[in-house]
Each structure stands twice: as structure tokens, then as C-alpha cells.
Amino acid sequence: MSVADFLAAVEPAQRRDDARAVCDMLARVSGEPARMWEPAIVGFGTYHYRYDSGREGEMCRIGFSPRKAQTVLYIPGGFPRYEDLLARLGKHSTGKGCLYIKKLANVDTAVLEILAGEAFDYMRTAYP
């Protein structure tokens, strides 16, 4: 499925609009085209990883998934490095490497864009 087709199928309409806006923002900050990863992740850039166990693979440097309940942004590098930005972001929650936003209107999109840019830059440095 293409990214455009995937985003066109997102429900409800507000989540679809948010997903398109996040997709445009991540394309802008990464300078990379959007591509589908897994069945429901839109990602930008690529990096190769290898765990101590020997397992390895490729994944997007930064990405998001417009889930039914909220939009999830995959923010690499751990959240402590982004504490200042998260304090200014607005209504959100975090999990291990995941930033959850129910509505894009509930956050400061300028701060979100800075956060995404810093996360992408971190990945370029950590995984050249």
C-alpha cells in the first residue's frame, strides 16, 4: 500500500488530517520521502541496527502511526534528552520511544517539529 492510500484510509477524519500534517512535517524535517514500514508505520530514512543477541535489521530513522485512539510518533534517543521540549509541547504522553498525541491541536506544532528534527539528527549521528 502506498503512503497516500494508507493515509487516505485513516479514520476518523480528524486523525486523517493530523496524520497528513505529521507526514508533511516529518518529510520536511528529515528531507526524506515517506515510506510504509510494517502495515501501519509511515517512516522516513533508514538505518541498520544490530542487537547484542546478533539479531539485526533495518528500520526507519523516525516515523509515526495514526492509530485509532491517538497518533504515535516514534522518537529515538530516549525522552530525557528532550525534557525541555516535552515540557513546552502540550498535551501528550510517552512510552518507551513513543510519543502519543490524541489531537495535533492539543500540542504546539512548532515545538513538535523541533523535537522531530532533533530526534532525526540524533539518529543520523548515532547511526551514520
UniProtKB/TrEMBL annotation:
Span of domain YdhG-like: 15-119
Superkingdom, natural source: Bacteria
Stored InterPro entries: YdhG-like (IPR014922)
Protein name: DUF1801 domain-containing protein
Record organism: Sphingomonas qilianensis
